[in-house]
Amino acid sequence: GVFSTDEVIRKRLLIDGDGAGDDRRINLLVKSFIKWCNSGSQEEGYFQYQRMLSTLSQCEFSMGKTLLVYDMNLREMENYEKIYKDIVYFLFLKKENSIAAAHEKISECKKQILQAKRIRKNRQEYDALAKVIQHHPDRHETLKQLEALGKELQNLSHIKENVEDKLELRRKQFHVLLSTIHELQQTLENDEKLSEAEESQETQMEAEAKQ
Description:
Subcellular location: Nucleus
InterPro entries: THOC7/Mft1
Protein name: THOC7 protein
Organism: Tyrannus savana (Fork-tailed flycatcher)
Oligomer: single chain
Family: Belongs to the THOC7 family.
């Protein structure tokens, strides 16, 4: 029977596990979506959301690349078919000039084949370069991360200033408290000395009265 696209994908994922290429990206996207649904914190949810966007971008890039390769192959097939028809035409319908025309067409075909090889080589180099670029974040994303880090650094700086201000306030309050305690201690000592002096004076007066 004919299998649907979903059944084919499901069977390939079951056989291949995490898979490679598009299969692996689809698996990662499903896992990221499940983790995003079950995320316990906003930070974890934002991370899984960014991961899903990155995987979707990779899938879109892969799909676009596949379509480009498909279109190029179609054009190459049409070109080769045209070349084949031209060769048949020159070989069978124009026998008087078939040999000369065939050599000329072969020479032209060789040039076209060389050009096709150069195009194919360039495409392979572009694919390799695209893979390298894909592993590096784009400029916009980097600027966003730098801006977020700058805001976080500024926030930490404000927190540091507030903590330092509180410490300075507590230091001053502690100094005032020590000064108050020292003054109270001095007052108590003076009161104690005054009390001792008064008692000594009363004792002396009582002694004089008895004489």
